[in-house]
């Protein structure tokens, strides 16, 4: 098998007259740590859902691990945007992480020892083991975020997709989470989307910019021009704290 | 106080309250955490079309209700996400269609329909042994299905997309849930009627949710609360000679106001 784990070819997504993704082409290789940045409403969540097979593109082709996203269900770990959750939902931390063990093969069966062991192991890796019996409603944003990562990891995925994993957490926790992801990346291909380019740029290997169209050169270098096109505003406003080795000047192109 | 137990219809009514509580406790918890009370309202009102058909064609209106409730829940489940019509418009249309069909069918049948009112607002005092048998069977089906698919139903309610990504056949799990709502509606019709079903599906579970963070405990708690509400409502309606369905619902509402107040004071 080739090392292309995700391939999008000329993918379009439209809702009525609204074009959300326009002719997106993207190849992700095994072992990549790809960060996709773009403004709110730029189509980042949509792009992840297309890769997951939750949204059918209006046009174009999506290949995941050599097949259709639907046929590879179970091999992709998904960490959705935290804002969509009802924080009052009646489930404990362990209940939630165990959901990572669900699947067709688990219908009509109980969770077994192996499932529980893996779930606890992932909670431990996320430093959340002592919270396993807590109701999720009692967690902070950062803690819930780590529980959601643990849930995705409990499915032992080959690819991990994360949607704005740092949106609701403070700076030290952000750094901690990125360090954890960096370590995970030794085994798992990671695609992470965020509207916050500050921290992302220090950890990921490759950066793409998305605002309806996707700008990606298969590397970490992002030109000022690309950023300005993506965010439709002067780059000084958005590139606070982005290391200079990441940002290449337009003239150098 | 226990003298009302000497009548068979009273004992039947109490039994009906217990059987209904089991269904509405378990399914009500799911309806509330999955936030599908509107869909459930649509299904229960659609069931009224079946009641009317039963009258018109002279078969048990409860069977008609079962058929209509199941058909509408399957329709809602299969349609979801596949049409341009938004889900809440579809629910509204289903709601009024069921009611209108019911009224139309009943009108088509010549003559007086004495217990039409009882299907709208319940009539726990006229529950027959056959009704009890039907309710018991439906209860067992509900218990078995929820026990079998408990973890999938929990995952569906918490994060449907994630469950889908994991390969859980969420469309069918959701269809199953709506079908169980349909069965519960039928169990509850004799107690509170199609118009008030939504109260018994939501109020006990909402109260139980205020005091528990585990789905199975909410199921248990709302079953117990439903037993308390149906029994005390029934007794009050006997003492004051009031409409039983409405009394049961008002007792539940009073308990809800009380528990919410207590909760906010703490
Ligand atoms: N189901 C939908 N129907 C119509 N428009 C949608 C739908 N989902 C998303 N959109 C629109 O698509 C655009 C991109 O959304 P999204 O992918 O969530 O962006 P991001 O995650 O980058 O903030 C937004 O303008 C949003 O309003
Ligand atoms: Mg988003």
Task: Summarize the model shown.
With 253 residues, chain A is α/β, with parallel strands linked by helices. Chain A contains seven helices and eleven strands. With 266 residues, chain B is an all-alpha fold.
List the main descriptive attributes of the protein structure presented here.
heterodimer; A: 253 residues; alpha/beta; six-stranded mixed sheet; three-stranded antiparallel sheet; 7 helices; 11 strands; globular; disordered C terminus; B: 266 residues; mainly alpha; 80% helix; 0% strand; binds adenosine-5'-diphosphate; binds magnesium ion
Number of helices of chain A: 7
State the secondary-structure class of chain B.
mainly alpha
Low-confidence stretches of chain A: 249-253
Order of helices and strands of chain B: HHHHHHHHHHHH
Total number of beta strands of chain B: 0
Straight-line N-to-C gap of chain A: 34 Å
* Overall spatial form of chain A: globular
What do the pLDDT scores of chain A average to?
86
**Largest beta sheet of chain A: what is the strand line-up?**
5-6-7-3-8-9
What's the helix and strand layout?
The complex is a heterodimer of chains A (253) and B (266).
Chain A: E1 4-15, E2 18-29, E3 33-37, H1 44-52, E4 59-64, E5 76-79, H2 93-98, H3 113-125, H4 141-154, E6 159-163, H5 171-184, E7 189-194, H6 197-203, E8 206-211, E9 213-216, E10 222-223, H7 224-231, E11 247-248
Parallel strand pairs in A: 3-7, 3-8, 5-6, 6-7, 10-11
Antiparallel strand pairs in A: 1-2, 1-4, 8-9
Helix pairs in contact in A: 3-4
Chain B: H1 8-33, H2 37-57, H3 61-79, H4 87-108, H5 116-121, H6 129-148, H7 150-158, H8 160-165, H9 170-192, H10 197-209, H11 215-240, H12 244-265
Helix pairs in contact in B: 1-6, 1-9, 1-10, 1-11, 2-3, 2-4, 2-9, 2-10, 3-9, 6-9, 10-11, 10-12, 11-12
Magnesium ion binds at residues 44-45, 81, 163 of chain A.
